Amino acid sequence: MELEAGRHDLAVRSLTSAHLAARLPRLTGVTFRLAWQADPKALVALIACQFAAAVCAAFGLAATVSHLFANTPTPGRLRDAPPGLAVVVGTLVLRALLGAAVTATQAPRARARSRKRMVGMRSMAVLPIRSPREQLR
User: Fold this and answer.
1) CA end-to-end span of the chain, whole Å?
2) Is the pTM of this model over 0.85?
């Protein structure tokens, strides 16, 4: 067993960013499937909220940047920037609240689904059968 653990530790230590990036699509797919199986409506709501928040944040950021880089004196630009910044901050707060609400309902279901899947996979594992003498070694 120690040999297996050592080999696993070595594999983890030798991971590079390229390996992680290569595995990311697969892991994202697994996560998406678990979330979909747990609650499809909540997943769609989460994706819609994230998209809407990103669009609002982009418009708010564009408004802020256009005010800050306008050809007007700096005090005037800084005075005109708060409405755009307020939109960005408000959007991020709304996004965080909606994400937390959906995650609070989604995470327990996804965790339960994941545990059930792991138990199913463990029950299919083939374990070597040892004699009582071999177990004492």
Assistant:
1) 12
2) no
pLDDT in tens, 72-84: 777 777 777 787 7
DSSP string covering the chain: -HHHHHHHHHHHHT--HHHHHHHHHHHHHHHHHHHHHH-HHHHHHHHHHHHHHHHHHHHHHHHHHHHHTSSS-HHHHHHHHHHHHHHHHHHHHHHHHHHHHHHHHHHHHHHHHHHHHHHHHHHT-------HHHHH-
CB 38 within 8 A of CB 110: yes
pLDDT tens readout for residues 17-72:
888 888 889 988 988 888 888 778 878 887 887 787 778 778 777 777 776 677 77
Structural contact between residues 97 and 106, judged by C-beta atoms closer than 8 angstroms = no
Token representation of residue 86: 């307020």
